[in-house]
Helix-turn-helix (Pontibacter lucknowensis), 99 residues
Amino acid sequence: MTDYKGIKTFDELIEREHGKIGTESRNSYEESAQLFIVSEMLKEARKEAKMTQEQLAEKAGTKKSYISRIENARGDIQLSTLIRIFEKGLNKKIGLTFL
């Protein structure tokens, strides 16, 4: 069991659970976290637009199974397709930030 004594911040907790920034474990965690965030953003935007996955896929020129995979945070996401889904399918702009 992990010892949580002395942990005072969320960053300290993440480091304790997944390792220091740059380690394989931490990189894997960060990637999964980002994929989860994108999946939740897509689900929320689609539901706000009152669309089914099938309707969104048709409007964006992709497959329902691809929309489902993104919304369930499974598999890789091709950036050009993600942009098309948001811009053509949901009439939303995507902004990217590199840190």
Summary: The chain has one domain: 10-90.
